[in-house]
Amino acid sequence: MSNRPWRATVAVAALTALLVSGCSSDPERPTPTPSPAGTSAAPSTPAAPPADDPAARAAALVATLSDEDLVGQVLMPYAYGDSATRVSAGSAAGNQALAGVDTPADMISKYRLGGLILVGFSADDPTKGNQETTNVDNPKQVHELTTGLRTAAGRLAAGPAPLLIGTDQEYGVVTRVTDGVTVLPSALAAGAAGDPKLTEAAWRAAGAELAAMGINVDFAPVADVLATRSTVIGSRSYGSDPKQAAVQVGGAVRGLQAAGVAATLKHFPGHGHSADDSHQDLPVLTQSAEALQSGAWPPFTAGMDAGAMAVMSGHLDARAIDPGTPATFSHKLLTDVLRGQLGFKGVVITDGMNMPPAKRWAPGEAAVRALNAGNDLILMTPNVGQAYDGLLAALRGGSLPRARLVEAVTRVLTMKFRLAETPAAQMSTLNAPAHRAAADALATAAVTVLRGACGGAVREPVTVTSSGGRDGTRAALTAALTAAGVQVKPSGGTIVHLVGYGDGANDLRADAAVTVAMDTPYVLSGAKSPTLLATYSSSRASMNGLAAVLGGKARPGGRSPVTVPGLPATTCASS
Fold first, then answer.
1. How far apart are alpha carbons 253 and 247 in whole angstroms?
2. What count of other Cβ atoms lies within 10 Å of the Cβ of residue 482?
3. Which of 191, 315, 419, 551 could be disulfide-bonded to 238 (CB atoms 3.0-4.6 Å)?
């Protein structure tokens, strides 16, 4: 379902909602200065909005909220600790530095937060630079954490609208929850498979598991077109063809949101059009506006048409549109282009505000600038108290127009009420056989032959080797090959060599009969093996698919979604 009718409804509701109430007391903060005359009196109790109209419910709730409540609803920070109310001394110290509180629950209560992001990272994670802690361990722990967070949020004035709890569960190199859940292959793998129905089915399974754990916002799918050899985007993208990437993004959005989890298209206006890393500096997009419209934005518009509830603004300098201004802070890009030209009226969320391009301003000023540009949620501010106080002061001083804040909060609450309409799956659905089958089907369809015969079993016995630090992946492939009936021995067999994220020519093996790229396949251009395969992912599902191909039980029907110098997209002519 397209979200265009909903987006228009939200805009109207936001601009017509009457806002203002008296300031409620907060024992943890000084008594706030009263709102300006004519804005502080709470309105009379309105008639109850229709229960089936999220936008009307949001507008009605907004009309009851104080300035402090409104400001809190546009903040979505991270927190230290794997429990809402019980944290280690180190986590308490981290929360004190970040927000002047001890626990995540205290943070929600003190700042009346609209959401919280769960963070974490792995070794092969290009986003680890701004992941300063981790509070994701296993599904049971995550479920207990999210339950505690929602309990704290339920006591807020905005409590009728459930807390947004998000995470970056892209699958591939950026995957926060990895144990005890169904892990999909990467976006690039889905692009290689080329079947949006398989993508949708896999993401529906993944969305159900996220919802079961209490996560209702996924900062995925990545809608960036891989127009450059960007290592920060890489296999997180569905490929270099904007039209092919677009259909995949649409499938991921439909699957995820069918399970009651908001999809977030990122990183607008297109991180894949620069090879630079916004976790380190401000990438520059040198393309013309026309080139961005035709080459970068089709996956975003496809995602919007599929109903995506959110878009993430990127720390990107689109020189042709607003030179020198990161898109996160660009009114031209977010309000004139994203909302005006492309018609999006859903929730716009900043990329992490603790990243260098956003830290050129103090947290309070950065939050105000981001909101005035057109963002509705401020993600991962480096200081929650300063961001909160800066927004409140700007609201009271007039540099943050009240109508802009009302519009943002109304959009956020509308999304919350929409998400609450879908019952969450039970924890028993995690890693269910049907979910694993959906992941395996997508991963198997992605396996690509870039050199060598199109299919056929590998000569047994097989010896699996890899570049350094991939013992777990070698073990997973060994187990999958054994289950597929392929004999595996520690040495002396046909060498199947695995390379992955960050690997280069020095990680290849000259005597390997088969070399397999488990991330972007560019490294294969320097490989000497007679057979070159790509799975684009090192997930268990991808190793199962690879084993099925090596065992001769599945045909490698994938096509490389990016160009690898000197190699075809596939050697399978009918693909």
1. 10
2. 14
3. 191
Known active-site residue 271? no
CA distance 349 to 354: 14
Residue 267 lies in a domain: yes
- Tell me if 496 sits within 8 A of 467, measured CB to CB: no
Tokens of 557: 């029907």
Token pair in block for residue 484:
């597929």
Give the pLDDT confidence score for residue 10 in this predicted structure: 38
**Residue with the two structure tokens 């960007």:** 230
Residue in the structure block whose two tokens are 């501010």: 381
Lookup result for tokens 């599929």: 306
- Give yes or no for a contact between 497 and 517, defined as CB atoms under 8 angstroms apart: no
CB 510 within 8 A of CB 528: yes
Angle at the Cα of 336 (from 240 to 391), degrees rounded to 5? 105
Asked if residues 127 and 279 have their Cβ atoms less than 8 Å apart, the reply is yes
Which amino acid is residue 344, in one-letter code? F
Task: Classify 119 as helix, strand or coil.
Answer: coil
Residue 89, SS3 per DSSP = helix
Residue in 124, 276, 351, 519 annotated catalytic: 351
Model confidence, pTM: 0.89
Q: How far apart are CA 407 and CA 376, in angstroms?
A: 8
Active-site choice (267, 271, 279, 435) = 279
The CATH number of residue 471's host domain is 3.40.50
Indicate if 153 and 198 belong to the same structural domain: no
Residue 465, SS3?
strand
Contact 287, 296 (CB under 8 A): yes
3-class state of residue 156 by DSSP: coil
Contact partners, residue 557, CB within 8 Å, separation at least 6: 193, 445, 447, 572, 575
Q: What is the pLDDT of residue 385?
A: 98
Do residues 446 and 542 lie in contact, with contact meaning Cβ atoms separated by under 8 Å? yes
**Domain count of the chain?**
3
Residue range of the domain that includes 204: 54-75+183-429
**451 shares a domain with 416:** no
The rounded distance, in Å, linking the Cα atoms of 288 and 176 is 35
Below-70 pLDDT ranges, the chain: 1-48, 121-132, 275-280, 574-575
Question: At residue 359, what are phi and psi to the nearest 5 degrees?
Answer: -90, 10
Place of tokens 């009302």: 406
Tell me if residue 462 falls in helix, strand or coil: strand
Catalytic annotation on 351? yes
Q: What is the pLDDT of residues 277-310, one digit of tens each?
A: 456 678 899 999 999 999 999 999 999 999 999 9
| Type of residue numbered 202 | A
Are 260 and 151 in the same domain? no
Distance in angstroms (rounded) separating the CA atoms of residues 448 and 549 = 10
